[in-house]
Model the fold of this input.
Amino acid sequence: MTYTQLALLGVVVVVLLDLVVLRVGLLRRALFWTAYAIMGFFQLLTNGWLTGREIVTYNPETTLTSGQVVLLGDWRIAYAPVEDLMFGFAMIVLTLDLWVVWGRRGIDVGPYADGPWVRRRDAREAQAAQRARNARP
Amino acid sequence: MPDVLQPYAYLAVLAFILVTTLPLELYLGVRVWRRPRRLALTVLPVLVVFTLWDLYAIGRDHWFFDPGQTSGVLLFGALPLEELLFFIVVPIAGVMTLEAVSVVRRWPAVPETA
Done:
């Protein structure tokens, strides 16, 4: 199979896994697409480095690209063949689905986030609630 | 890039991903690194599937790696060490991103247990 065929197959497999087999449904949630937008940006950045510098080189016979490494166009985005976006999508969906599946089964569900940022937000909100109570006549 | 740094060109990407996601663990406290059992169960299948895909792709000449810009350590006779590490580092970064969005937006990652 060519890289194009495999990449498409990868996308189909993880979509079926998410919606039908594992029934995680991340693909239906804003949570996933927000996270994916962030990851997608960083994928373009890091993959651009890997492909733009030709740390990895693709065989044009197995991709839609014609072989010349360009920033945009000829089925390339940030130097990388579009197949890489599908490869990355498949990898991310599989990863996040598994993470949710193990969480559902009660494996390492908690403890929940407790970093300085979260503690500050909690304190700020507690203060606002207190003020609202005091303001009441 | 100076010649002496060339072999680390790929490893630098992995270091970049680890460093940029670390604040999510330390500042937001997403607790991904501190849930090792769930993380291992998540990363291992991904590592196996995508290593097999990579080996197939290298065998079928879908892509190849610049020996001058990688460490030179080859696994199974073909797979640069960096690729194996990529399939560990990137899934971890992905889980951290999901958990970070979950914390900031208060969207539970596993609604059934929230």
User: Anything to note?
Assistant: The mean pLDDT of chain B is 95. Chain B has one domain: 3-109.
